[in-house]
C-alpha cells in the first residue's frame, strides 16, 4: 500500500512539472488559467496522499482551504478574461 502511495506522489509531482511548463509557455491566457486550476487540483491530491501516508486527519482543513481559494481564483480570473473587470460597479450617468 505504501509503495502505491509513493508511486502516486511521484506521478503527481511529474505531472505538476508538465503543467507548470504550460503555465509559463501557454499559447493563450485561458490555457494558463486551466493549468493553474490543474495545479490546484494536483496540490489537493498531493496533500490528501500525504495525509494518508502520515495517517493524520489534520490536513483535511488545509485541503478545504486550498480548494476554496482555487475555486475563487478560477472564477475571478475567468470573469476578468470574459469581461475585463472582476468587481462590477454601477456607473452614475
Automatic annotation (TrEMBL):
It is a multi-pass membrane protein. InterPro entries: MrpF/PhaF-like (IPR007208). Keywords: Antiport, Cell membrane, Ion transport, Membrane, Transmembrane, Transmembrane helix, Transport. It is found in: Cell membrane. It holds the Pfam family MrpF_PhaF. The chain crosses the membrane at residues 6-24, 36-54, 60-81. Belongs to the CPA3 antiporters (TC 2.A.63) subunit F family. This is Na(+)/H(+) antiporter subunit F1. It comes from Sporosarcina saromensis.
Amino acid at each position: 500500500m505504501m509503495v502505491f502511495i509513493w508511486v502516486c506522489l511521484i506521478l503527481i509531482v511529474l505531472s505538476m512539472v508538465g503543467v507548470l511548463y504550460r503555465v509559463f509557455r501557454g499559447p493563450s491566457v485561458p490555457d494558463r488559467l486551466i493549468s493553474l486550476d490543474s495545479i490546484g487540483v494536483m496540490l489537493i491530491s498531493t496533500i490528501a496522499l500525504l495525509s494518508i501516508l502520515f495517517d493524520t486527519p489534520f490536513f483535511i482543513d488545509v485541503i478545504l482551504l486550498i480548494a476554496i481559494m482555487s475555486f475563487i481564483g478560477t472564477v475571478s480570473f475567468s470573469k476578468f478574461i470574459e469581461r475585463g473587470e472582476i468587481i462590477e460597479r454601477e456607473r452614475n450617468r
